Amino acid sequence: MAGGLVKYRHLSRKSSHRQALLRNLVTALVQHESIRTTWPKAKETQRLAEKLITLAKRNNETSRRKATGILYTPHNLLPKLFGELRKRYEARPGGYTRVLRTEPKSQYDQGDSAILELVDGPKDLRFAMTAAAVARDERLGRPSNELTLLNRAKVIRYRPNGQAAFDDMVKRVGKLGFGPKRSGAVVKEDVKNLEEFPMDSTTEATAHPKGESRV
């Protein structure tokens, strides 16, 4: 029937090509924990990534075989998926990924772009952006607004030692002076700088070219 409800985005590809694309993107997401691609691809990859982490939380032979069929390099990524990521999201009931809209990657087609990232990880951009907003408010001597407080509660809720990690991030980004003394939210120049800012002392959260989707 014409005009019926579409259950998923076809992404202008046949079924086999679409599945290969999504497997490639979710493999890059598990490896790098943050990828930049188009908005429709990010939303479809998010669905597969949520399913993959749910399989990791089950942690049995069946889920391992299913995860092996999704990842392109399971021999490299299964230990991380069923180890580090499973423990990270053990207490979280869902919502393991986040899609953030960004400016178009290409100046020619102006297609909707987005960042797909794993939450509560070393490359959690909202965690860094919220810390930058709090640091700016402290520098200006004013209380944080309702949205900043809501984001703060979200980013520390399931993160191990969330409050201590957030306070440490506020101090670190405060020294860098993100966001000059002006009203309004953190601007796009600050977001770009935060992408290149190390989230902790051991992991560099850089804008990695390998994590970007070229398809």
Keywords:
mainly alpha; globular; disordered C terminus; 8% strand; 215 residues; 8 helices; 3-stranded antiparallel beta sheet
Query: Averaging pLDDT over every residue, what do you get?
Result: 83
Record the strand order, biggest sheet.
Answer: 1-3-2
Helix content: 40-55%
**SS-based class:** mainly alpha
Termini Cα gap: 31 Å
Q: What is the string of helix and strand elements?
A: HEHHHEEHHHH
Q: Calculate Rg over CA atoms.
A: 18 Å
- The backbone outline, from C-alpha atoms, is globular
Number of strands: 3
Largest sheet: 3 strands, antiparallel
Beta-strand percentage? 5-15%
**Uncertain parts:** 180-186, 201-215
How many distinct helices?
8
Secondary structure: elements and pairs:
Elements: H1 15-32, E1 34-38, H2 39-58, H3 61-70, H4 74-88, E2 97-102, E3 113-118, H5 125-140, H6 146-157, H7 162-176, H8 188-195
Antiparallel strand pairs: 1-3, 2-3
Helix pairs in contact: 1-2, 2-3, 3-4, 5-6, 5-7, 6-7
Folded structure, characterized:
With about 220 residues, this protein is mainly alpha-helical. It has helices at about 15-30, 40-60, 60-70, 75-90, 125-140, 145-155, 160-175, 190-195; strands at about 35-40, 95-100, 115-120. The chain has a 3-stranded antiparallel beta sheet, covered by helices on one side. Helix 6 crosses helix 7. Residues about 180-185 and about 200-215 have low confidence and may be disordered.
